[in-house]
Write a structure and sequence with these properties.
By secondary structure, the chain is an alpha/beta fold. It has 3 domains: 149 residues; 79 residues, no CATH class; 184 residues, no CATH class. It has 9 helices and 32 strands. The strands form 4 sheets. The chain has a 21-stranded mixed sheet that branches.
């Protein structure tokens, strides 16, 4: 027989057990839920990891494709890790390992869908786990250096001293740019150092700058200091340019006489003497290589680049036979009008020539005392005071605080022992310019120039063949050494560009630079406006556009 207290105790025990079961059930549900949430979060974390990893693998595949474009003559094709054609070493070692869920990568290289010469579209995809990332880029092979985007570019101090100097285009210096006496600048000014007026920094925010033209009207938009330095193309070796000339079937004529087929190969006379007239002009078609000195003047026609292994001596006016109109400078037009000017000049087959010179560009009567006193002797800018590399210091610029400070380890012992800066990239410690050996047209130098005029078997005096009485140069002139010229005829005009390391351009009356917009890199991927001159290059490839597109698991040749 049970008593009442015993019944109460049993009821209490049953209630506790029931509550415990409920608690355990709730706890179990919570644990299962937490495990599910944890599993979801782990999977999400793995997914994010796979997503990020796939991007980096796609990026590496893209870089592999870019390198292939740089190295190969015919890079177009499909490449994959699955068949061993996409040979990024680490990728094959990752597949099937517990260290990564990477399973495949694909790469497609096609010619630019827009038809731009030398342009390729590269699409790269990579798969990690269930995640796929796809990247696409437009790559330019052998892109012209950006130094050709300027009417005046100095790999050094830039200087415009004179109120009668006018520029219609952008200007740049790989150090400071100094203006004096208020020249007219209808374009931008970019300097790696400071933009100055008589060595005093110009403040574009001051509201008034000591210039005239567009740069003075809006200095904040047009004046940019502290910018990066641009690399200069290295012309130490012409092998690639000779190969390019051969591939393009390039030729150089005077009148109807063929002088050079690709590369001038006269070993005893590696130079060339060129004089063109309106009825018998110098004619260039594509890049042409002349290993020695070139003397040139007169009328020139065609499109191409004349590579000169020695000095370029411009003995007088050098003008296009079929020139576009520069009466309204194209860089002062609206962008639409400028683009139309470029396109119509291309459609009409207007002349466009670049001179890429390994040594220096000298214009005028270089053997004359007048030329020497104007371009070589002056203490403030003359060539006799510049050109030496031994003590330039790490910035590569003379007359700066690091001159003579050792920064270069030449013997590999870990200690800097030299202040030499190889400004021209030729591996030689250059000294200051020497008038007799670097500039003067001697009989010995003339004797190595094919077609140079002679009298009784002796090279004619260069004074009889050249003149300071000129004022017109058409073309793009490039060298990583000096450009020096003495023009005594008033109204000096250069339609094109001057790009150099050192510069001594001395004129009479006024000087006008008018940039030729046709060589600007803005048109390098535009098949309707790009003219392939075979210009000097600073890099083997450049990336014009880059983006991530919707994932494509496999090959892709469609532009997005």
């Amino acid at each position: 027989m049970k008593t009442v207290p015993q019944l109460l105790r049993r009821r209490r025990e049953g209630s506790v057990l029931f509550n415990a079961l409920i608690f355990v059930g709730i706890l179990g549900i919570a644990i299962v839920g937490l495990m599910q949430v944890s599993s979801i979060r782990v999977r999400a974390a793995h997914g994010r990891w796979d997503w990020n990893e796939a991007y980096f693998h796609a990026e590496n595949a893209l870089n592999w494709g870019i390198q292939r474009i740089a190295d190969q003559g015919s890079p177009i094709g499909n490449y994959a890790t699955s068949d061993g054609t996409l040979t990024v070493p680490y990728m094959s070692s990752l597949i099937g390992t517990p260290d990564s869920s990477f399973s495949a990568a694909w790469l497609t290289i096609v010619a630019d869908p827009g038809g731009a010469a030398g342009m390729f579209m590269v699409t790269a995809s990579a798969k990690v786990g269930k995640k796929v990332r796809t990247l696409q880029a437009n790559i330019k092979k052998n892109p012209p250096s950006q130094v050709f985007d300027y009417e005046y570019f100095l790999n050094n101090w830039g200087w415009w001293w004179g109120s009668s100097i006018t520029g219609h285009g952008d200007n740049r210096a790989n150090w400071d740019f100094d203006f004096r006496d208020g020249p007219t600048v209808n374009g931008g000014v970019v300097a790696s150092g400071q933009i100055e007026s008589n060595l005093t920094p110009i403040d574009p925010l001051s509201g008034s700058v000591p210039l005239h033209g567009l740069a003075a009207a809006d200095p904040v938009s047009y004046l940019h200091d502290g910018s990066e330095r641009l690399a200069m193309p290295n012309l130490k070796n012409f092998t690639n340019y000779s190969a390019l000339a051969a591939a393009k079937g390039s030729k150089l004529y005077v009148g109807t006489t063929l002088l050079v087929n690709g590369t001038h190969t006269n070993a005893t006379k590696p130079g060339l003497y060129l004089v063109g007239t309106a009825t018998s002009p110098i004619k260039i078609n594509g890049p042409v290589v002349i290993p020695g000195d070139v003397v040139i003047k007169g009328v020139i026609t065609g499109t191409g680049t004349l590579y000169v292994g020695g000095n370029l001596y411009v003995a007088g006016d050098l003008t296009y036979k079929n020139s576009p109109s520069f009466s309204t400078p194209p860089e002062t037009m609206t962008p639409a009008s400028r683009d139309n000017w470029v396109q119509s000049s291309m459609t009409d087959g207007k002349d466009l020539v670049c001179f890429a010179v390994r040594e220096s560009v000298f214009a005028g009567k270089v053997n004359s005392s007048e030329w020497k006193s104007a371009c070589f002797d002056p203490s403030s800018y003359g060539l006799k005071n510049v050109g030496a590399e031994a003590n330039l210091g790490q910035d590569g610029i003379a007359d700066t605080p690091d001159d003579g400070k050792k920064f270069l380890d030449t013997n590999g012992d870990g200690t800097p022992d030299s202040a030499w800066y190889d400004a021209d990239g030729d591996g030689v410690v250059d000294v200051k310019y020497n008038y007799a050996t670097d500039i003067t047209m001697t009989a010995t130098r003339a004797g190595k120039i094919n077609r140079y005029p002679t009298q009784s078997g002796t090279p004619e005096n260069f004074d009889n063949l050249s003149s300071n009485d000129f004022n017109r140069l058409d073309g793009v002139f490039y060298t990583n050494h000096a450009v020096a010229m003495r023009s005594t005829r008033s109204g000096m005009r250069i339609n094109g560009s001057i790009i150099s390391r050192d510069e001594a351009i001395i004129f009479s009356g006024s000087a006008t630079f008018c940039y030729d917009s046709r060589v600007h890199s803005r048109y390098s991927d535009d098949p309707n406006r790009f003219i392939d001159l075979g210009l000097p290059i600073a890099f083997l490839v450049s990336m014009n556009h880059f983006k991530e597109i919707a994932p494509v698991e496999g090959f892709c040749s469609t532009a997005y």
